[in-house]
Amino acid sequence: MTHSLIFDRRVPSLAATAILAGEVADLLRPGDIIALGGTLGAGKTAFARALVRHLAQEEIDVPSPTYNLLLTYDFDDFCLYHYDLYRLETPEDAFELDIDEAFNTGVSLIEWPDRLGKYLPAGHLLIEITSEEGASEEARIIRFYGNASWKQRLTALSGAYDA
Fold it and tell me: Which residues contact 58 (CB under 8 A, 6 or more apart)?
């Protein structure tokens, strides 16, 4: 298995989620693929919004790409492609969104990555977000799954966020 649990973190609030997303944002480079997993309402868009705002270094409008499937953000080092694939009918439909170009030249942030099926590249980082039973409405468990390369890159985070 090429992807294994790197670490997990309990975040008690949206503010804590935003801090974690910002720290992940600082590690991104062209060619990175971040797959955001979780059920409807788990917090995937909140994580993505915080990540994009951290990269922009301001409180920009970051809507959910649910209806247009793709939003792009140009930064100095790369273009971030924010996909929401929930409404994709077949995995091949993603190619109409130039997802293969995004994989090669930018940073891809993908909500509902399971909709890509076999087309999701093996070297992605999976961030799985789940609500925490019996906790506050904003509390989440965030799990990071990846290969050895991601584990090495996330070393600074994993030391701080071991659950």
Answer: none
